Amino acid sequence: MPIHHDTDTKRRRDDFDEFPLSFARAQALFFLLEYTEPFAKERLAEQLFEQISAVQEKRPIVLVCIGSDRSTGDSLGPLVGTFLEKQAPTHLHVYGTLAKPVHALNLAETIHSIQTTHYRPLVIAIDACLGRLSSVGHVFFSEGPLAPGAGVQKELPAVGDFNIKAVVNVSGFMEMMILQNTRLHLVYELAELVANSFHMLDAKLSAESTRTTISFTPRSM
């Protein structure tokens, strides 16, 4: 369910093309990269680690991978979730896979389940979006909630302390048709980048946890 929004106001189609610049001004944190850039996954992982380390306070990290396996362009979130589920991360709780997608019909239920299952979760929402031609293939990481479905005129609850969006195609009229005709190759590459970045984040968190444990282990007399 591609989105287009800022922190306070859902965007309408007539200002959709202003997404990258307007969104940057609206966010305290705004990081973007193109998926073919050298060391793209390392750069995104470093940003994730930096931001999460600053606010985590031992809060459980929950990823909400939004989308549907019934639409090529909208399958980015479930692909990310599926890739991560296979990697079995230690420090990340993953919601939304190809087998069990999080979409318009169960998003509110999923949010409720997360809030009742995890104490003060730090939620990162992941979704596909449409944008300018020059933005296709870019991944955006920003602070604040994500408003799923706003780009296709759906009213859904906002979700996330942080959000990641990947631009899978060009915005315009008949967005649902555009999503159906989005190339799977691009969606797959973007999903793999995001998933690998989170895998690296999980490794960094494990290393940090190990260092902390060692530093607080009392020496034997």
Subunit organisation of the chains: single chain
Q: Into which percent range does the helicity of residues fall?
A: 25-40%
| Helical segment count | 6
- Rg from C-alpha positions? 17 Å
> Strands of the largest sheet, in order across it?
1-5-6-4-2-3
How many strands, which pairing sense, and closed or not: the largest β-sheet?
Answer: 6 strands, mixed
Explain how this protein is built.
By secondary structure, the protein is an alpha/beta fold. The chain is 38% helix and 18% strand. Helix 2 (40-55) crosses helix 6 and helix 3 (76-87) packs across helix 6 (184-215).
Keywords:
221 residues, alpha/beta, 6-stranded mixed sheet, 6 strands, globular
